[in-house]
Specification:
ATP binding; ATP-binding; Heat Shock Protein 90; serine/threonine-protein kinase; globular; five-stranded antiparallel sheet; kinase; HATPase_dom; alpha+beta
Length: about 140
């Protein structure tokens, strides 16, 4: 199977909501998503957290790439700040600081890379149904 993917940029203003909707629409093209709504929800939540981090901490538009390689759905978000996010342990009542931990719990793998013009944070989601021949 050839890889299948999409890319879209989301502005700081309104980008998180639009990113969730866009991601859910793209995922509808895979047959496995009907049988794995929890995986779809996990991907959408991770996209929400990664876009929020790009907007709030990097003060940057976010460039989202979704790539399906037949085994893993790769979710990558690039922003213009080269500072890598770090997992925090927020105190009770704090309204932020959980994004990296949430994505780390939801995804099968999480990778962060500095680049010449910013950074890319990538998460891999391996649906249980992905190994089946009809998984798309």
């Amino acid at each position: 199977m050839k890889a299948k993917g999409w890319a879209h940029s989301f502005p700081v203003s309104g980008g998180v909501h639009a990113g969730r909707r866009w991601t859910r629409r793209q995922l509808e093209s895979f047959p496995w998503t009907a049988d794995e709504p929890e995986t779809v929800d996990a991907v959408v939540l991770a996209v929400s957290e990664l876009l929020t981090n790009a907007h709030i901490h990097a003060h940057s538009d976010a460039h989202l790439i979704l790539t399906w390689d037949g085994d893993c759905l790769h979710v990558s978000v690039h922003d213009e700040d080269p500072t890598l996010p770090r997992q925090r342990s927020p105190q009770a009542g704090e309204t932020s600081g959980r994004g990296v931990g949430i994505v780390r719990m939801l995804a099968d793998t999480l990778d962060m890379r500095c680049q010449r013009h910013g950074k890319t944070v990538s998460a891999c989601f391996r649906p249980a149904r992905a190994g089946r021949p009809d998984a798309g």
